[in-house]
Amino acid sequence: MSTPDENLFEEAFAEFAHTAELMVDPVDSAVIHGRVRRRRATKGALAAALAALIVAVPAAWWLQESNGDEVDPSPAEETTDETTSRETTPAEDGGAGSNSVPEGQETGLDQPVLPTFGDLVGAEIELPEFFPGEGSLNDICPTGPATISDAAGAGYGDGSVRLLKLVQTTLEEGGPVEAVALFGCAPGDGMLTQAVSVAGDGDGGWEVTEEIALGTLDSFPLIDIAPAAVTGVLLLVPEPHGTDHQGPLDYEIFRYRTGAELEDVTDSAYKWGIADLAVEVEKTDNGDGTWTAAVTITNTGDHESQGFALTACADAALTVEEVDGLPGCTEDYRVVEEYAALEAGESVTEEWTVDPAPFDEWSGDAQAGGAYLEVRVRTPMYGVDGFAFDYDGSNDYGNMSLIVDDVT
């Protein structure tokens, strides 16, 4: 008999222990699926060793091991076919959404036909009211039916109903995988949201099959959803931190399951995607009349972040060569770069060349107080299964200014 490979057995024990977590309803996050996916590369000889271990190891041992003090690995990027998958954007599925009958929908199968992100963008669908029972207020965000816009294609205050996110998860034990959509409407500066389950109606369209949660501006400001690890969908609800928008922003995470009361799982949910993204801007004199602005974004939290965007604006007196044409800071910020996840402690830096106009061409305000380049991190980004949330608003902003002494 050959000598056992200790590393192989160690990997097999780890694989089995993590798989067992799915059987005991572990912490709620799609990260569990990432754990299992990461270990699929150990098939082959490892699978044979694992089969032997399943027979030999007492059940009490692996259940105890699965709840040990090990460090949670980062989620994998790829998705799983069994329980959850990342939504597709219109760019990824060729801009679908023309209300053509999705493949298989016309067959009348018992399994629900699930939409992609692109299927819903541009579609008409009857949604619950954003202002239940408030009559004419619902004319602001019409839902009967609503014509769905892409999240990036509508501005605040226009009353458009936009699709923010689409995830797949099971909502009840033993039930089918369902598509849960997060819709939003901004009648003013704030965003109203609702989470619903959506499936094919059998005639080429889409219908709401289950109402999950309604997000209000004050009592329940729902901003994001994510698949639960085993069953259900997670709802991220921040708690406002005052009018100054400074300091940490507290939050709660609830789990919805069909037929059950909303369950507060803030303490037990894995915080994948919730991070503290800090911004710093350093300026350097290049000696030729231009300046370098080094913008550094750091994940100072203890969890991996999700996708986020860097936005910027600049005084009219400043030309930023790499991102020319930035709006003035009295107007808005413009997205200049989008990023994928940052590990805890990881940083990313962008360097831009800032070319100021002659001082006598500056506005009076700029001459008196300085010409500014300002940057800010913008979340959430909705292209991922996990949450995208920066809970500290006091350090997500940075700027550099040039004054008369810098340019004369």
Shape, principal axes of CA atoms:
elongated
Number of strands: 20
How is the largest sheet built, in terms of strand order?
1-2-3-4-5-6
The CA-CA distance between the termini, in Å, is: 83 Å
The stretches of 5 or more residues where confidence is low (pLDDT under 50) are: 8-24, 29-102, 104-109
Task: Quote the average pLDDT.
Answer: 75
Task: Provide the helix percentage.
Answer: 10-25%
Query: What count of helical segments does DSSP give?
Result: 7
Keywords: Membrane, Transmembrane, Transmembrane helix
Transmembrane segments: 45-63
Region (Disordered): 66-115
What does this structure look like?
The protein is of the alpha+beta class. It has three domains: 1-56; 59-270, no CATH class; 274-407, Immunoglobulin-like. It has helices spanning 6-21, 31-38, 45-56, 59-66, 117-120, 364-369, 404-407; strands spanning 124-125, 146-150, 161-170, 177-185, 192-200, 206-215, 224-227, 233-239, 250-256, 263-264, 274-275, 277-285, 291-299, 308-314, 318-320, 334-339, 347-356, 371-378, 389-390, 397-402. It has a six-stranded mixed β-sheet with strand order 1-2-3-4-5-6, with no helix packed on it. It has a four-stranded antiparallel β-sheet with strand order 7-8-9-10, with no helix packed on it. Strands 12-13-17-15 form a four-stranded antiparallel β-sheet, with no helix packed on it. A hairpin with a 6-residue loop joins strand 3 and strand 4. Residues 66-115 are annotated as: Disordered. The chain crosses the membrane at residues 45-63. Keywords: Membrane, Transmembrane, Transmembrane helix.
